[in-house]
Amino acid sequence: MCTDGRLHQHAAPPPVIPPATPVPIPQPRLGLALGGGAAKGFAHIGVIKVLEGQGLAPAVVSGTSAGSVVGALYASGMDGFALQERSFSLDEAQVRDFGFGGSGLVKGEKLQDYVNDLVKKRPLEKLGKPFAAVSTELDTGRRVVFSRGNTGQAVRASCSIPGVFQPVLIAGKRYVDGGVVSPVPVDAARELGADLVIAVDISAKAQNGKPVDGIAGILGQTVTIMGQRLGEQELARAEVVIRPRVGKIGAADFDLKHSAILEGERAAQSALPAIREAIAKWQAARMQTASAAAK
């Protein structure tokens, strides 16, 4: 109260406006589809190293043939550097066992045991990340996606190149290389729940304009062309395709694994802007959908 008897009228304090709750930005579930390509498959390790280093580790993984080997080990908990270390200590004799059956030179049992040892005998559904190995049912030509059961056996089935590996018998059915029907398993990654699929294509390409001679050469060129056309259709369904430059690495060039890993790293680095753009587009679309639903 003032001395003159009048009361001061204090201005009411301004209302306190609580800070706006930030809207969480949704993160896509990234899928990594690793294609087949024998010794070229070491390039997958380089791709994984770069993705992890950029905070883009995939949530789900699918693999065909060589991609199924790397994919299974990665899904089991090995990071890119552990995969690289393991690859340098890999001796081809550890995964190749010759047989004398008429259906293939390599039995594949050593590969199966090698993978099972490294994943600590865990079945596919018990690995650290959802993983699928793609194979082909020989007698029907059906694409088969293994996501449960014996990990080493599924990888062996996915890697059983016709004429090289003996077909794998599982539950009374024979299986061969997944590359026959799905050279880069984009659809399998999507089926595992991926929102965005990053595909890694290391497949051989048809020789442009170069003459191909001999029965083996003509047969090989024919298979390459068929796989190339088939692969293009599935690759079109991936958000990003990474193509390491491993064309000069042969199917059996295990001694060039270091070069393959480096090419994988280079290709993945080049693809980072496209990956981030795909993520941003997905996030924008999701935010827009959520905003529309809230109105």
Characteristics of this structure?
39% helix, alpha/beta, 295 residues
Query: Radius of gyration from the CA trace?
Result: 26 Å
Count of individual helical segments: 8
Determine the fraction of residues in helical runs and give it as a percent range: 25-40%
Taking the sheet with the most strands, its summary is:
8 strands, mixed
The arrangement of helices and strands along the chain is EHEHHHEEHEEHEHEH
What's the structural blueprint in terms of helices and strands?
Layout: E1 30-34, H1 43-53, E2 60-64, H2 66-75, H3 80-88, H4 109-118, E3 131-137, E4 142-146, H5 151-159, E5 168-170, E6 173-177, H6 186-191, E7 196-200, H7 214-235, E8 240-242, H8 257-294
Parallel strand pairs: 1-2, 1-7, 2-3, 7-8
Antiparallel strand pairs: 3-4, 3-6, 5-6
What does this structure look like?
With 295 residues, the chain is of the alpha/beta class. It has 8 helices and 8 strands. Strands 1, 2, 3, 4, 5, 6, 7 and 8 form an 8-stranded mixed beta sheet that branches. Strand 5 and strand 6 (173-177) form a beta hairpin. Helix 1 crosses helix 8. The radius of gyration is 26 Å and the shape is elongated. The termini are far apart. The mean pLDDT is 87.
In short:
The chain has 295 residues and is α/β, with parallel strands linked by helices. The protein has eight helices and eight strands.
